[in-house]
Amino acid sequence: MTTGNSNLPLVWDFIDRKKEVFTELADRVWETPETCYMETLSAAAHREMLEAQGFRITENVAGIPTALIGEAGEGGPVIAFLGEYDALAGLSQKAGVTQHDPMTPGANGHGCGHNLLGSASLLAATALKDWLEKTGTPGRVRYYGCPAEEGGAAKAFMVRAGAFEDVDIAISWHPSNFAGVQRETSLANCRIDFTFTGRAAHASAVPELGRSALDAVELMSVGVNYMREHMPSESRIHYAVLDTGGISPNVVQAHAKVRYVVRSADLPGLFALIERVKKVAEGAALMTETKVESTILAGVSNLVVNTPLMDAMQDVWDSMGPPPFDAADIAFAEKIRATLTPEDIAASWNQERLEQRDVPLADFILPPHTENRQMGGSTDVGDVSWVVPTVQAYGATLAVGTQLHTWQVVAQGKSPLAHKGMVSAAKAMAATGLAAMTSDQLREAAWADLKKRRRGQDYKSPIPDGAEPPVAAMTLK
Ligand SMILES: [Zn+2]
After folding, report:
1. Which of 35-39, 222-226, 267-271 has the highest mean pLDDT?
2. Is 104 strand, coil or helix?
């Protein structure tokens, strides 16, 4: 042990004792892939496990039916483990099969590995709870069952509802190619629906009487696409047309709706860019003599990393090493790699600025770095990280080169290699949680770092006052 914390083997021992039932939990969630706010069976499976492990349970957190909290222990610091269990649409795939072969074509699949994510976080929380009980140490451990990470921003609504107000430290992880500490920041984002209303008319007999909402959607896209040249380079804008106004070309479309995702490096940049997109929408409405209404559905903040916590977690990983993969895991990973392009594989190494090596599974721990790196995407962990010092691990649960949101992730999601990566991530989180629970100095340093990184800015939720979690809106196909 290089960490010098004599309590670590005991907390890992608690994980080893319970890893089988948590592997079953991950598999069970894999088998019922449910998307954004619809995670009824997956949340119920996590609730059952919390109950079986003796946690006190709070349901319907922030008014979200699939959000829940389990708490154990008394007094002391509050250490939170964040879990997720939502799946993705259209990624159905048979487990263990190394070619694209959906179980049900078009159905959901766990293409981001969140079946493992929730289970490992709950396993880490359980091990720390067992350690508190065994040692009679004051302290509280919480598991946050967070739905709708993929586009629903549930954690941002949970933060707004005050669910993290008394938390000292938050810990999470994400399935990945490699094991180590997640050190990248992420983009703030916002989902906005623009609804245009025009006037229907016979498109040939009296076209002059019609005002086309579909024209407005198209012109808005043109305007936004011209604006791209003049945005900060790390900003992103995407859109999906939800309503084209009907199927009849000979009727001027009186209604149309387009959903935008706007992303920026930070919240002030996001709010400024949203105002510009709104101006483009108003311009499109002006040109077409239609009306436009915009509704913000959900938003997330950029991720604030935390140096003292990243250093503490790095120590843990360095003392653990990579997951104990065996020859069968390597053989399976080789077959998955045969389905990837050379560009896929190179991208995984490039993302970590590492020199590419010919290994099918991670055989090392990601080295620390101090550069300010940004991942391309966004996460609602960002909102938690603004109000509580937060650290996240990467767990090696995928053949090197596997990209998230692909059938290959689903194919590996119930495999022994994924289970090993998940258990090792749980150990990294539990040991980091234990360090935070038992060291006032670490918690104080983590809070000082968060205050420094916020540079005097208060957390301002990207979700407008009064907006409800978009439980129904997210089911729109
Ligand atoms: Zn994910």
Report:
1. 222-226
2. coil
Q: How far does residue 35's CA lie from ligand 1's centre (Å)? A: 12
Report the run of H or E that residue 71 belongs to, with start and end: strand 68-74
Nearest to 84 by CA among 32, 121, 45: 121
Average pLDDT over residues 113-133: 97
Contact 16, 23 (CB under 8 A): no
Evaluate if residue 108 carries a pLDDT over 90: yes
Write out the two tokens for 398.
Answer: 């995928």
For residue 473, pLDDT beyond 70: no
CB 284 within 8 A of CB 207: no
Domains in the chain: ranges and CATH? 8-186+302-454 (3.40.630.10), 188-299 (3.30.70.360)
Q: Which of 84, 73, 233, 212 is nearest to 146 (CA)?
A: 84
Q: What's the gap in Å between 204 CA and the centre of ligand 1?
A: 49
List pLDDT tens digits, range 291-331.
999 999 888 999 999 999 999 999 999 999 999 999 999 99
> CA torsion angle for 53, 55, 58, 64 (degrees, to 10)?
-40
Q: Which of 174, 459, 451, 125 is nearest to 307 (CA)?
A: 451
The CA distance from 419 to 120, in Å, is: 9
Cα 193 to chain centroid, rounded: 21
Q: Are 213 and 290 in contact (CB under 8 A)?
A: yes
Q: For residue 470, what pLDDT band results from cuts at 50, 70 and 90?
A: confident
Q: How far apart are the CA of 285 and the centre of ligand 1, in A? A: 36
Cβ-contact 388, 77 below 8 angstroms: no
468 or 8: which leads in pLDDT:
468
Average confidence (pLDDT) over 419-432:
98
For the residues 99-123, what does the mean pLDDT come to?
96
Q: Please list the residues that pair with 145 across neighbouring strands.
A: 68, 83
Dist CA 83 CA 170 (whole Å): 11
Q: How far, in Å, is the centroid of ligand 1 from the Cα of 51?
A: 26
Task: Using pLDDT thresholds of 50, 70 and 90, give the confidence band for residue 193.
Answer: very high
Distance 326 CA to ligand 1 centre (A): 26
How much distance in Å is there from the Cα of 475 to the middle of ligand 1? 19
Integer-rounded Cα Rg, in Å, for the chain is 23
